[in-house]
Amino acid sequence: MKKIGLMGAMKDEIAPLYEAMTDHREETVGGVVFYEGVLDGKDVVLCCAGMGKAQAAAATQLLCSHFCVDAVLFSGIAGNMTSKVSVGDVIIGKTLVYHDGEPRMFAETAPFLQEFASDEKLIAAASAACEENGIRHIVGKIATGDCFVGDSATKNSIAAKCAPDCVEMEGAAVAHIAAKNGVPFVILRAMSDDADEEGFEKLVGKPFDISDYCRTAAKISRSLIARL
Ligand code: ADE
Asked: What are the residue boundaries of the Nucleoside phosphorylase domain, all occurrences included (predicted)?
């Protein structure tokens, strides 16, 4: 893979990757700042897309058609929905789904999919990267929607609808647009909370330092890139 697109939704999520890059060149397209450079010997384009599906989709399209990346790697945090892992552990998205919206209607046009599968080779590289760094992880289902899930009623209704392993706000949109462009992708998420009232208090209710989780996600991204 010649050029890899790296994305996060928040500044904290991309900061550890930005700091590790060399030869930074900056270009703003469509209101998004993209940093081209070299990370561990690989050509990369890094951006902070902003939160939510629309911003994730827009930045993914630019990575694919303006920067012509050969793969897209999203790294960030998520709310845990499974007992298989805990806060601090990582979920690698095998499949990405929307828990809101109308996936059946979305699938009436290309790429005609209601769920999106990460690239098998990128999943294998991500799993190996977690193992190398001693980070507990599973390969599972990630559900995306335009809200922070911070109450048990919403969490339970999402679980009943699509039984994901974690919930976040960008992955399926990144996956959807990467798939539409025929570009392989993988989504990595470090668990920052349990998508419940406590998680809401921790992440939304008061300022909270998420840099530890972001560093975990970024560490795996770097080991993964080194394997490509
Ligand atoms: N990102 C991190 N935690 C989340 C949550 N509980 N809901 C949605 N996105 C998240």
From this structure: 3-198
Give the residues surrounding ligand 1 with Cβ less than 6 Å away.
77-79, 148-150, 167-169, 192-193, 195, 199, 203
What does the block give as tokens for 214? 């972001």
Quick: pLDDT tens for 124-174: 999 999 999 999 999 999 999 999 999 999 999 999 999 999 999 999 999
- Scored b (16 or more CB within 10 A) or e, 128-148 reads ebbeeeebebbbbbbbbbeeb
Q: Is 22 helix (H, G, I), strand (E, B) or coil?
A: strand
What do you get for the CA distance between the two ends of the chain, in Å? 7
- Among the options 13, 165, 170, 196, which is catalytic? 13
| Euclidean distance between CA atoms 47 and 33, whole angstroms | 6
Per DSSP bridges, beta strands 166-168 and 71-80 are antiparallel
Phi, psi of 84 (to 5 degrees): -70, -25
CA distance 221 to 13: 11
Can you tell me which atom of ligand 1 is nearest the CA of 193?
3
Expressed in percent and rounded to 5, the helix, strand and coil fractions of the chain are 40, 30, 30
**Cα–ligand 1 centroid distance for 43 (angstroms):** 30
User: Which residue matches tokens 């789904």?
Assistant: 97
133 C-alpha to center of ligand 1: Å?
24
Report residue 226: phi and psi, to 5°. Answer: -60, -25
- Whole-prediction pTM value? 0.95
